[in-house]
TrEMBL record:
Assigned keywords, A-Z: ATP-binding, Carbohydrate metabolism, Glycogen biosynthesis, Glycogen metabolism, Kinase, Nucleotide-binding, Transferase
Organism in which the protein naturally occurs: Aeromicrobium phragmitis
Maltokinase N-terminal cap domain mapped to chain residues: 27-109
Signal peptide: none
Annotated Gene3D superfamilies: 3.90.1200.10
Protein name per its UniProtKB record: Maltokinase
Pathway the protein acts in: Glycan biosynthesis; glycogen biosynthesis
Subunit structure: Monomer.
Pfam families cross-referenced by the UniProt entry: Mak_N_cap
Family assignment from sequence similarity: Belongs to the aminoglycoside phosphotransferase family.
Amino acid sequence: MSGPVETEEVGPHDELVEQLTETLPEWLPTQRWFGGKDRDVSAVRALSWTPLLDGDPLLLHVVVEVEQADRAERYQLLVGSRQHQVPDVPASASIGVEAGFTCYEATGDADLTSCLLDSIAGGVQIGHLRFEAEPDAELDTGLRAHPITTEQSNTSLVYGRQYILKLFRKLTPGVNKDLLLHRALWKLGSPHIAEPLGAISGEIDGEEFTFGMLQRFMPDAADGWVMASTSVRDLMADGSGLPPEELGGDFAGEAYRLGKAVANVHADLARALGSQEAHAAELEGSSAAMIERLDRIAAEVPELGPHVERLRSAFRKVADLPSPITVQSVHGDLHLGQVLRTVQGWLLLDFEGEPAATLAERTALRSPLRDVAGMLRSFDYAAHQLLVGQPHDEEQEERALSWARRNRSAFCDGYGKASGADPREQADLLLALELDKAVYEVAYEHANRPDWLTVPLSSIARMLSEGE
Ligand SMILES: Nc1ncnc2c1ncn2[C@@H]1O[C@H](COP(=O)(O)OP(=O)(O)O)[C@@H](O)[C@H]1O
Ligand SMILES: O=P(O)(O)O[C@H]1O[C@H](CO)[C@@H](O[C@H]2O[C@H](CO)[C@@H](O)[C@H](O)[C@H]2O)[C@H](O)[C@H]1O
């Protein structure tokens, strides 16, 4: 039998944890959410381990530091361990067998994960972990959870049809920006986010971490990436030769509404958290940061080499832009997988920023055009993803381009309508931000989905030649 542990006591699981740290260097790179697949793991060190359920089964909350050639990053794990009634976990979730106990990644074990929601509802503290509901939230308990299976950098569990708990995988110290921005927007009554309902946080070596965020789940919502991909597929599969606007699956109306929603969220973020004017020195800083990121990524991904010089000159132009420009809190990693279409309209998710960014980079005030650029990149991705690995086909390439052009333009129209300023009026800044995002994507794909590397690389080539 096992039950919740509600005291400061930490069970004697040192041996199990030591075994785990020996197995994890091989296992971590097999996980979708692990962001360091581009280099070997040299060592894994456990920083904290906290039994959430003790006995058989055991549910252990573990924070590890993962060492790779030039970096050490922290990750959160939920490890299940059972001697009896081992659930049927997929091979990828199995971590190993230690002293007759099967250890596995436990987010798929509903018998174990229901305690996370119950602990948030109960406001309990377990070891250093604090489980807290938001002040006005009233939560149902006893619900079973299943993990969602979309492309994700974190792991999200859906409880019944009511709640979604995101467990942050890669951890950075400080209160998570996703939670902070959701709280700020909710306080203002923004209709474009899902209600924040609770959090899991804790302290390691004197530093605060957010481990999880609970939100209202929107059961009938459609994912923006899925909707856009369906529209592109319809166009690609259509033999009639009709233009996108004459096909049933046209997405441009949605892209327009999405542009309006993003502009409204930017206005609310500025109202809640303020905005500033950035002058020449800051623009120089942005330009230098883009070039620094480019050089760092080009050193790791040789395929970027042929574009480096022209990218540098596009980034240099940012330093000479007429200033000031407005900067504020932004989403930081906006793309079609971060937006949900509900019956009330578009919702934005995941305000955490880029998974690889430092805390300072995530919380820095930025031009809102950074998010516009992120979404424009995403239209490009949606259009070109189906061509990955296919032999070159001029006609399909032209269709992909026409879909992207139409939806990028509709998005900017909507954004301009709601904000009063068409993003395309700041063409040089927008182009530099898009190129900067595409350079980031080169690193992201290289480390996470090497087969997709061609998508940002071919966009960079295209944007550079169009900008000439
Ligand atoms: N409140 C919600 N209601 C319904 N689905 C959601 C909700 N929040 C997230 N999702 C789904 O989970 C996916 C991943 O969420 P996200 O916050 O972007 O996680 P990650 O940081 O891992 O990318 C989204 O693409 C969406 O499909
Ligand atoms: O959603 P996350 O915060 O995990 O963002 C990361 O993963 C995204 C992929 O899931 C990645 O987005 C890139 O691929 C998308 C298609 O899968 C595309 O729509 C985006 O435009 C493209 O940037 C994102 O960059 C990364 O930070």
